[in-house]
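Note on ligand handling. Small-molecule inputs were canonicalized before submission; formal charges were left as drawn, and no protonation-state enumeration was performed. Where a ligand contained multiple stereocentres, the stereochemistry in the source SMILES was retained. For zinc ion, this procedure yielded the string shown in the input block below.
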Amino acid sequence: MNLGKLNEKCPECGCKDKTLKRRLDAEHHAFGTTQSLTCSKCGYVFKSPEDEKKEKDEN
Ligand SMILES: [Zn+2]
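Structure output:
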């Protein structure tokens, strides 16, 4: 996980507080849980580098 994301401002509300959640990925459950970073204030979901990598692998 790119720690630089933790210092990014939320594009929706500009808040820098974030919540790191573990989420169970039903489609890729074989890989276990993935982490998701959400804005503590408005709930905006920051796209993780892992998600981007996955999409490239599938295409
Ligand atoms: Zn926000």
